[in-house]
Specification:
The chain is built from 7 helices and 7 strands; from the N terminus they run E-H-H-E-H-H-E-E-H-E-H-E-H-E. By secondary structure, it is α/β, with parallel strands linked by helices.
Length: about 180
């Protein structure tokens, strides 16, 4: 596994699922701050077992520039920045999505993984600016479905930075055989 651990604040159903959909597809970036507030207790507890807050760097799953242009924002970035600022943790974009891929929604586990292969790269300029005292990276996304996105981004970060990567998401889909957002 490319990442050292993963946690989510909520199960991806009901209100949590509707919030993620409105945040991601409904053009409501303001929901990011609300979601961060709701997820803060789980985020704080996870951070407490990972490393001291001055030794963690929060980052997010990047989206392709075309998706960001269409949506107007990267939902993972909005959530990551709100979570980090609430804890006083440094936050920076460390990866870029260099390939436009199919939407993960509707793809099975194997197709999700192959869809993202080679889609992410390290932003070397951003990494060169981070403090040498960072001991761990916290990768934030809106929802964890199969883990394909988290694994792919974390593998790039681990390979290039040599630091453990932990994944935190607002919600996590539980396997029930139905398609969910990723």
């Amino acid at each position: 596994m490319a990442y050292a651990g993963a946690r989510a604040a909520f199960v991806h159903k009901g209100v949590a699922r509707r919030m993620v959909a409105a945040f991601k597809y409904g053009g409501q970036p303001v929901l990011g701050r609300e979601m961060a507030g709701l997820a803060r207790p789980a985020f704080s507890a996870f951070v407490a077992v990972v490393a001291p807050t001055d030794r963690i760097l929060v980052t997010w799953v990047p989206c392709h520039r075309g998706a960001r242009r269409r949506r107007g924002y990267n939902q993972a970035e909005v959530l990551a920045r709100a979570l980090a600022s609430g804890e006083g943790i440094a936050c920076a974009g460390l990866a870029r999505k260099i390939a436009s891929t199919k939407h993960q929604k509707g793809l099975g586990r194997a197709d999700r993984q192959s869809n993202l292969k080679g889609a992410f790269a390290l932003d070397r300029a951003a990494v060169s600016r981070i403090a040498a005292r960072v001991e761990a990276v916290m990768l934030v996304d809106d929802v964890y479905t199969t883990g394909a996105t988290a694994r792919e981004v974390a593998s790039v970060l681990v390979e290039c930075m040599g630091l453990p990567v932990y994944v935190f998401t607002f919600s996590r889909a539980m396997d029930s055989g139905t398609e969910r957002h990723d």
